[in-house]
Amino acid sequence: MFEFSQLIIERNQRPILDIPNLTLATDKLTVILGKNGSGKTTLMQCLARQLHPSKGCIRFKEKPLLGFSQRQLAQEIAFLPQSLSEAAGLTIRELVQLGRFPWHGTWGRWRQKDHDIVTQSLKQVGLSHYENQLVEEASGGEKQRAWIAMLLAQQSPVLLLDEPTSALDISHQYELLSLLQKLNRETGQGIIIILHDVNLAARYADRILAIDEGRCVFHGTVDDFMKKEQLESLYNIPMTLINHPENNTKVALAC
Ligand code: ADP
C-alpha cells in the first residue's frame, strides 16, 4: 500500500496538493476522479516518484519511496503518464519490448519468456496484427494501446495509469477497464487509474479517490461515492442518478 503522511506539493510557491494522511491500497482497482486542475496528475506523479514532495512523504511497502533504486521501483510500479512520447522510429513491438527493460537491463539476455510476455501483452490490447507498424504512424487510440501493452509487459505488481482512455473509443475504453479488472482479479496486480468518466469508474472501480482543489474529498467504495450531493459538489453541476436498467448499479447524468 501507499501511505501518505503530511504530503504537500507546491508549484510556483502555490500549494497544489495537500494530503495530511491517506492509505491507498495496492491490491485493488482504484479510480481517481476530480475536475480539471484538481491535482490528480500531480498525485499520480508523486506515486510514480516523478515529483518529490515539498513536505511530508509517501511510503510504499512500509518504505519511503525515495528509498527504492530506479530499477527496484520499476520492478514494483509501472507508470503510464498522460502525455505519451512519439517513440520515433520504433515499431509497436519494439516499444512494448521496452517494458521488459527493468528485468534484464540494457545488456541482459533476452529470453523466450520475455518474447512471450511481449506477444501476450500485444494480444491483450488487440494489437497483435499491428506489431510491425511504426508507433508514429499508428492512430491515437492504437498508440495509447501500444503504450498500455508496454506497461503490461513490465509485469510490475502495481500499475499507475493517468487517463489511459483519453484517445480510446467507447468499446476500447470498456475493453481496457475490463482487462485491468481481470488482471487485478487474476494476478493480484493493483491498479490506480485516473479517469474522467464517472460511469466507467463506477462500473469497474473497487475504490474511488476524489480530489478537489488538491485535497482528498472522498475515499471509499463506489456505492458510497455514487450519491447526488457528492457528485454535484465534486463537479459543481446539477446531477441526476438513475438505476441502470440491466444491473444493480447507478448511472450519473449531468442535467
Ligand atoms: P489534474 O490532473 O487534476 O487536471 P494537475 O495535477 O495536472 O490537475 O494540476 C493541478 C494544478 O497544478 C493545476 O492548477 C495546474 O495548473 C498546476 N500545475 C500542474 N503542473 C504544473 C507545473 N509544471 N507548474 C506549475 N503548476 C502546475
Automatic annotation (TrEMBL):
One of its GO terms (molecular function) is ATP binding. Coiled coil: none annotated. Its main location: membrane. It comes from the Bacteria. It comes from Marinomonas phaeophyticola. This is ABC transporter ATP-binding protein. SMART domains: AAA. The keyword Phosphoprotein does not apply. Gene3D superfamilies: P-loop containing nucleotide triphosphate hydrolases (3.40.50.300). Residues 2-238 form the ABC transporter domain. It is a peripheral membrane protein. Keywords: ATP-binding, Cell membrane, Ion transport, Iron, Iron transport, Membrane, Nucleotide-binding, Transport. Transmembrane segments: none annotated. Pfam families: ABC_tran.
